[in-house]
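Deliverable D2.4 — example input (structure tokens):
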């Protein structure tokens, strides 16, 4: 379960991952990129306890405050008109060392909470899509099935269910035939998508490939949103191999996220500039199929922002990039009446658009000024 022990994200490495790490250590050695990719993602490092400027304890601020009198249920987050995030559980098969879930409440939803969430969904016809996450929804298969079944019965406005998971790369055998036949059945009633996160090609082991194929055979679409991590995948050759593999597996590339400024993750974060350099090489070099180009994005405290020319307005003396967005507080409050702008992490410009402040990583004391207003 996500959560802290003595201020440190409790280490948890699944049996499957422990065996894989050992196998890669024996066959490829500790200096190999594959070994480092696994260890850096999952194995606790003392560097996590060093003091740095990364202090975030959440991905973003979007919780809908529970209020029975207003029909606002527990366990949901909302930033956008069409989508709702449902935090079904905080349990994961393994703890990724760069993940903010360490700092989230560890409680798990009950069926009665799911009933209230489905009621909320059914009442808002603007809502078309739910992202079920946490935590890992496949860790609570019965609750996940209950959610999907109830949505199909009572909230026909929901057209898409997305399931965020790392189970296929962390403990693949947890996904069994019962789940595949459930998904096959319900993917006739609504679109079911699995959002996976594969950060290095070593994670695509035969057992994982079999599970991914079975998911696809169940009518589920799979896309991958990956995280750029130092000494995991922050080199162009690894990224090219990774996206080539995803292409041949029929997995769509979604975001390549810069690693968020979470407390204890300084050693895993590259600079934003390095990510921009890599994404340019990856997507404008003719080296990978145009059908598998990821979108480079920052997960800021006010939501996801894709970087375009002029998106980075400046870098302040504290190492924060000021990121221009097209989000407005007034829009947010239509979809989530409890939304408040986190004033220490964002502000509004004169046209009412939100400017997000985002702590750069790694060499952020000397960010390439050429990010501002494009690549001069
Ligand atoms: S990235 Fe996903 S699987 Fe990893 S700890 Fe975070 S929520 Fe769990």
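Example output (designed residues):
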């Amino acid at each position: 379960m996500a959560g802290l022990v003595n201020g440190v994200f409790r280490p948890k490495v699944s049996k499957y991952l422990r065996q894989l790490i050992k196998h890669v250590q024996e066959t490829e050695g500790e200096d190999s990129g594959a070994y480092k990719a696994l260890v850096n993602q999952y194995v606790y490092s003392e560097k996590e306890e060093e003091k740095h400027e990364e202090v975030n304890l959440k991905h973003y601020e979007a919780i809908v405050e529970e209020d029975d009198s207003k029909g606002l249920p527990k366990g949901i987050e909302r930033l956008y008109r069409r989508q709702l995030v449902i935090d079904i559980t905080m349990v994961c098969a393994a703890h990724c060392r760069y993940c903010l879930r360490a700092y989230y409440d560890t409680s798990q939803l009950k069926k009665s909470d799911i009933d209230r969430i489905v009621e909320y969904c059914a009442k808002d016809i603007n809502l078309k899509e739910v992202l079920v996450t946490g935590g890992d929804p496949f860790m609570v298969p019965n609750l996940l099935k209950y959610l999907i079944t109830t949505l199909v019965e009572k909230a026909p406005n929901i057209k898409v269910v997305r399931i965020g998971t790392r189970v296929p790369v962390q403990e693949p055998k947890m996904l069994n035939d019962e789940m595949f036949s459930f998904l096959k059945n319900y993917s006739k009633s609504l679109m079911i998508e699995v959002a996976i996160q594969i950060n290095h090609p070593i994670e695509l082991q035969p057992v994982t490939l079999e599970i991914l194929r079975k998911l696809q055979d169940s009518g589920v679409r799979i896309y991958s949103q990956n995280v750029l991590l130092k000494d995991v995948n922050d080199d162009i050759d690894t990224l090219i191999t990774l996206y080539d593999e995803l292409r041949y597996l029929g997995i769509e590339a979604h975001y390549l996220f810069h690693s968020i400024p979470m407390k204890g993750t300084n050693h895993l974060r590259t600079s934003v500039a390095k990510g921009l350099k890599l994404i340019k090489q990856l997507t404008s070099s003719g080296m990978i199929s145009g059908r598998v180009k990821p979108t480079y994005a920052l997960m800021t405290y006010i939501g996801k922002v894709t970087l375009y020319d002029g998106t980075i307005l400046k870098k302040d003396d504290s190492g924060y990039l000021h990121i221009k967005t097209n989000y407005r507080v007034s829009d947010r409050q239509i979809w989530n009446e409890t939304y408040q702008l986190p004033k220490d992490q964002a502000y509004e410009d004169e046209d009412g658009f939100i400017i997000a402040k985002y702590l750069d990583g790694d060499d952020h004391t000397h960010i390439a000024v050429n990010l501002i207003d494009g690549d001069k």
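The longest strand covers residues 320-328.
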